[in-house]
What we know:
Its EC number is 2.4.2.52. Residues 29-48, 131-155 are annotated as: Disordered. Pfam families: CitG. GO terms for molecular function: ATP binding; glycosyltransferase activity; triphosphoribosyl-dephospho-CoA synthase activity. By secondary structure, the protein is an all-alpha fold. It has one domain: Orthogonal Bundle (Triphosphoribosyl-dephospho-CoA protein), CATH 1.10.4200. It is built from 13 helices and no strands. The protein has helices spanning 3-28, 50-57, 61-74, 79-98, 104-119, 125-136, 149-157, 161-167, 171-185, 190-202, 208-231, 238-254, 259-275. Helix 10 packs across helix 13 (259-275). It is globular, with a radius of gyration of 18 Å.
Amino acid sequence: MTGTQHSDDREDEALARSAVDALVGQLALAPKPGLPDPRDLTARTTRRDHSALRWSARALLPGLTAMAATARRTGEPSARLRTDLGAIGRSTEHTVALTGGGHRGALWTLGLLVAAVALRPEARPAGITTLAGQLAAHPDRRAPRRPSRGSTMSARYGAAGARGEARAGFPHVRRALTALTTARSQGATEPQARLDALLTVMSTLQDTELLYTAGPMGLRQVQAGARGVLEAGGTSTERGAAALTALDTNLASHAWAPRGSGALLTGALFLDALIS
């Protein structure tokens, strides 16, 4: 193996490690309404054990490294690359399942973004999300034909879902990045800025997981609750913090989990780390 190959391998793993770190950082954030966080160590609220999720997040590293390497070798956002990424993603899902499961949405988001960064390392976030959208626009010809929850909800309600979000160039990832910058400039702490970014996504995302578990009325209730926190001044204000507590209690009582928003925040934290 040449020195150049060693360098490329290190860059691929460093990129994947940055993505996994973003996921671990998202998991550590609290209080996240309806999503696993360090308060939920016994899995009583979100039904996902936080310690197990942190452990299984590390299992994404080999797959994300392979995605980066494949993208770098392919060199363009082609249909072939999309098919290869899909195959690596399904293999990675199997590995993650053996370590406790979870993170399917984060793997979808991070896989496309990691591949896009590997294709154009010099690109800024807007260019990266656009490139990821070009990749997602290609069909995965080897994907199983059975419908998923998300595709079923997308067909029933016309929601974009994870695929639509990706094909559009991850608009909610870009909104989360803007929210991070805005909150920081207004003096919010880093956890408060990240929570405001999560709520920004929740306030408008047509989350197909929520549509499945809560229906359209439940989705609108979650969106309105997230908007309420932001309109009260965000999580760094007393009114905003109180609204966040109320939203958190409401989602816990219904067992509603806005998992799509968590995955997209993870994507935003990954891109934010690249430009920081």
